[in-house]
Amino acid sequence: GSDAVTAVVEVQGQLTIRKLATADAGRRLSVQVSWLRTHASSLPLPEVLTDDWHGDRFHYDMPYVLAARDFYDVIHTTPIENSKDVLQSVVEEMAAFHTRHRAGEASDTVVDEYLERKVRANVRDVLVFARGLVESDYTINGDAYRLSEWDCLLDMRWLREQVRSRGTTVVHGDLTIENVIVSPRHEKKWYLIDPNPVNIFDSPLIDWAKLMQSLNLGYESMNRGSTAAMVGSDLSLVMARSNAYAQLHEHLCNLLCAHVGAQGMQEIAFHEL
User: Fold this and answer.
1) How far is CA 132 from CA 125, 136, 164, in A?
2) Burial class of residue 34 (count of CB atoms within 10 Å of its CB; 0-12, 13-18, 19+)
3) Contact indicator for 126, 120 with CB cutoff of 8 Å
4) In whole angstroms, what separates CA 266 from the centre of its chain?
5) 17, 129, 149, 229: which is deepest, by most CB within 10 A?
6) pLDDT digit string, tens, across residues 30-66
7) With 60 as the cut, is the pLDDT of residue 1 above it?
8) Model pTM score
9) What's the rounded Cα separation, in Å, for the pair 241 and 221?
């Protein structure tokens, strides 16, 4: 998604994790490095060993930790209570981080730009593609829908009404399950990778929405699963959310509701969408 390559490489006899990209993607990686270094003392993050430009190509290296594991794998291979503890620790650390870096409220201009670029532009792309496949009615796994149901996502007045929380802070920006690494070597037993700090609207709710993106519909499982199939206007796809994800989703909802309340949960759902 970031147009970057991630690989294990050997540097002077030591194995490291290298992220590499060119052009605009390389510049985004350089911003990522700045964020990791800036917040290294206040969040569990990987150390940036080295970074360098080679012409239009940028890379940076992080330690290769043999015992470190993707949280997705940990969730599905260890007792669920372990994963609940990790998830709760992540939420508590990020909530405290958001509070420490609290900024002012976003202006109407900033929120409108967010809604235009993150909602309306994407919806237009989806609808152009969808209208090449169906006229108005379609089904997903047997459930009936209409393209007209997307109209509200193009209505700026309706969209503005969904964003009541205007407070901003420093956010990770891509706080999915895949970007949580579980590691016994770290003080918190986990750390975060791959921040996306270049955002339009830096609401803390966006970090929570990214966790919801993973656990609510099983985003990682969908990416690892089979492709969709379409016959006429009938779409079939595997939406396999594991029982472990279902339990963690319930746990996450309870944790977040205590932080943001019912209205905040509704807005998190909007940002997740």
Assistant:
1) 11, 11, 35
2) middle
3) no
4) 18
5) 17
6) 999 999 999 999 999 999 999 999 999 999 999 999 9
7) no
8) 0.93
9) 7
* Distance (Å, whole) CA 146 – CA 130: 11
- The pLDDT confidence band at residue 217, using thresholds 50, 70 and 90, is confident
Residue 89: pLDDT above 70?
Answer: yes
Provide the sign of the torsion angle of the four alpha carbons 97, 101, 107, 112, taken in this order.
negative
| Secondary structure of the chain in HEC code, one letter for each residue | CCCCEEEEEEECCEEEEEEEEEHHHHHHHHHHHHHHHHCCCCCCCCCCCEEEEECCEEEEEEECCCCCEEHHHHHCCCCHHHHHHHHHHHHHHHHHHHHHCCCCECCHHHHHHHHHHHHHHHHHHHHHHHHCCCCCEEEECCEEEEHHHHHHHHCHHHHHHHCCCCECCCCCCCCCHHHEEECCCCCCCEEECCCCCCCCCCCHHHHHHHHHHHHHHCHHHHHHCCCCEEECCEEECCCCCCHHHHHHHHHHHHHHHHHHHHHHHHHHHHHHC
Token reading at 221? 């499982």
Q: CA–CA separation, 231 vs 250, rounded Å?
A: 35
